[in-house]
Write a structure and sequence with these properties.
two-stranded antiparallel ribbon; mainly alpha; 11 helices; binds protoporphyrin IX containing FE
Length: 239
């Protein structure tokens, strides 16, 4: 991360053949570096929180369940953060966060994998027969697995090699994240004890997540997107 920024600085230095950076360039580089650090902090925060809780004996009386749930929450949060980047650019016009979509996506995939590994490893001791029985008893796991497969496939194909190889199909493939996000919300709501029909139990949070995901998807519709952009331009022009 820092290496790339240093490379950018060196390139600019070489191009300008001076040892001092011009003010706007150095400001831009500092701002980009700040954003990179911020993005990695967002990605690492759930892991750091778990580490602190582990060190301070705050993993509750059921640590495996707590870790599994925390990793699941981290995964869904990061999927949503990734999904929110395009609408954020539409609303603010600030394009820089778009460069960090992949990093956020990779962190989301990492937490999905850790969530899955905690489930089959710590919870089931890698006993696949037991796992197969669970799939029938708890169908929300099938929904989560579908979402996980999509997220994993997108993480693997996020590299330049696949982008080049798949061409136009790459964009279509990566749009399946919309479907994965909806599946993740259903998995979340279903995993919690409660009922969506009478809003009992813990369902309020997944419902809010669901509304937010739908909002982020609606913001991608060209008519809505253009309307928001037009409003922003008008607002900035002071009309
Ligand atoms: C994109 C993929 C996935 C996401 C975003 C996700 C997210 C979540 C979330 C947010 C929860 C609820 C956490 C809470 O109680 O606060 C959860 C629970 C759970 N997930 Fe996932 N999950 C995914 C995939 C999977 C997969 C592949 C499996 C297993 C094969 C799985 C197994 C479970 C189980 C067993 C629970 C219930 C944990 C408990 O309360 O004891 N999930 N997941």
């Amino acid at each position: 991360m820092i290496d790339n920024t240093l490379k950018e600085i060196l390139t600019i230095n070489n191009n300008t053949k001076t040892s001092n950076l011009s003010q706007p360039h150095s400001k831009l580089l500092i701002r980009n570096l700040g954003l990179k650090v911020f993005v990695h902090l967002i990605g690492l925060l759930p892991f750091i929180e778990l580490l602190i809780r582990w060190q301070t004996n705050q993993l509750t009386v059921n640590p495996i369940q707590f870790i599994e749930q925390s990793l699941g929450l981290a995964a869904i949060n990061l999927i949503i953060v990734g999904l929110a980047i395009t609408p954020f650019i539409t609303i603010t016009g600030w394009k820089q966060p778009g460069r960090h979509r992949r990093t956020i996506g990779l962190y989301a995939a990492l937490y999905v994998i850790l969530h899955f590994l905690t489930f089959i490893g710590l919870d089931f001791g890698f006993d696949l027969n037991k796992l197969a029985r669970q799939l029938f008893e708890k169908p929300f796991i099938i929904v989560g697995s579908l979402a996980a497969l999509i997220v994993f496939a997108l993480a693997v194909t996020s590299f330049k090699y696949w982008k080049r190889k798949l061409g136009k199909k790459w964009k279509i493939l990566h749009r399946t994240i919309y479907f994965a996000a909806l599946l993740a919300v259903i998995h979340y709501a279903w995993a919690l004890k409660g009922s969506v029909s009478n809003l009992s139990g813990d369902v309020i949070r997944p419902i809010i997540y669901g509304f937010f995901v739908v909002f982020l998807l609606l913001m991608r519709i060209t008519t809505i997107k253009n309307w928001v952009i037009a409003k922003r331009i008008k607002l900035l022009a002071g009309r």
